Amino acid sequence: MSGVSDLSTLLASLSPVVSPHLYVFLTRPAATYGAGGELEPIASFCEREGLTIVVRKDRADAAGENYEGEYALISLSVHSDLQAVGLTAAIAGSLAGRGISANIVAAFYHDHIFVPSSRAGDAIEVLSQLVAKNQTKPPIT
Questions:
Q1: N or C: which end of the chain has fewer CB within 10 A?
Q2: In terms of C-beta density within 10 A (0-12 exposed, 13-18 middle, 19 or more buried), how is residue 88 classed?
Q3: pTM value?
Q4: CA–CA separation, 40 vs 59, rounded Å?
């Protein structure tokens, strides 16, 4: 099932949802997939320097993990096509315009944005403005 690829339609349909949990990024130098599995990561990426895992903050705290920063997770409810062009750029650009860092993860169905937890409300405001702007665009003739 392919998702939406038209940028205007995507931006008008973001429907951002904030997770009730906070998340942190951890690293496991020289690790392979599966390391840190006991923390139930929601995302991972293997880099030359090690394995990065994204876990709920409460789980990291309970395990005595060290991390820098805590992040709110905003998931976009629109089913975006993995080959859609410009969605990540539009979101990152809008958030950057308000001084909000964004770590964006594209999954099969949806895009997910990690923002500093202290800026979650601001990020939702920016995304809501982006939606409103694209819902009022006149049709191209």
A1: C
A2: middle
A3: 0.88
A4: 8
